[in-house]
Write a structure and sequence with these properties.
The complex is a heterodimer.
Chain A lengths: L4 E3 L2 E4 L5 E6 L6 E8 L3 E9 L2 E4 L8 E7 L2 E6 L8 E8 L6 E2 L3 E5 L1
Parallel strand pairs in A: 2-11
Antiparallel strand pairs in A: 1-3, 3-8, 4-5, 4-9, 5-6, 7-8, 9-10, 9-11
Chain B lengths: L3 E3 L4 E4 L4 E7 L6 E7 L6 E6 L4 E3 L2 E6 L4 E6 L8 E8 L6 E3 L3 E6 L1
Parallel strand pairs in B: 2-11
Antiparallel strand pairs in B: 1-3, 3-8, 4-5, 4-9, 6-7, 7-8, 9-10, 9-11
The chains are: A mainly beta, B mainly beta.
Chain lengths: 112, 110
């Protein structure tokens, strides 16, 4: 069963540190999404790519967040510097244009 | 107004009951619609697509009403294992951007 793989599963870091989250989408999927989920805001779309090209990152704070897709098997989300308000679960999802997506298990980030 | 709105619930229903959730969307150009299920501390998982003609998968029925811009999910003969948060998802017609509702929490009890 093909799955989206995210690493790390959990991350605790101090405020000001850089955080890098990684995602391996399902082979053959051409669209990759990064979401953030908190109790207060629910699932928020941060950025997404189609065929590795960034399509929309309007949901992402540009001053500290960056999303890249260096190749078809890897997507990264970086936060530098991290802040306590960034604490959330970050999900990566992949799919085919217009179809439902498969989610990874998420990275649970805690910034202290 | 939010792009996709759902009643957060919780809906508390006894086992065997029928329960229905609605979800409204604001973008009339939206093209694709889905229901996802999310268990506590887990990732969302695709439950079913929603077609214009409506579709059924076992105890689950999804409907789309384009005129009124809402989709619905009906669960018949609910089971304890149906307890979860149900998220509706709307995809716009141009950039394939998925927008999630905040979810409706269902708790099925004995």
């Amino acid at each position: 069963d093909a799955r989206v793989t995210q690493t790390p599963r959990h991350k605790v870091t101090e405020m000001g540190q850089e955080v890098t989250m990684r995602c391996q989408p399902i082979l053959g999927h051409n669209t990759v999404f990064w979401y953030r989920q908190t109790m207060m805001q629910g699932l928020e779309l941060l950025a997404y790519f189609r065929n590795r090209a960034p399509l929309d990152d309007s949901g992402m704070p540009k001053d500290r967040f960056s999303a890249e897709m260096p190749d078809a098997t890897l997507a990264t989300l970086k936060i530098q510097p991290s802040e306590p308000r960034d604490s959330a679960v970050y999900f990566c999802a992949s799919g085919l244009s217009g179809a439902g997506n498969s989610f990874g298990s998420g990275t649970r980030l805690t910034v202290v | 107004r939010k792009e996709v709105e759902q009643d957060p619930g919780p809906f508390n229903v006894p086992e065997g009951a029928t329960v229905a959730f609605n979800c409204t969307y604001s973008n009339s150009a939206s093209q694709s619609f889905f229901w996802y299920r999310q268990d506590c501390r887990k990732e969302p998982k695709l439950l079913m697509s929603v077609y214009s003609s409506g579709n059924e998968d076992g105890r689950f029925t999804a409907q789309l009403n384009r005129a009124s811009q809402y989709i619905s999910l009906l669960i018949r003969d609910s089971k304890l294992s149906d307890s979860a948060t149900y998220l509706c998802v709307v995809i716009d017609g141009t950039a394939s951007k998925l927008t999630f509702g905040t979810g409706t929490r269902l708790q099925v009890t004995l």
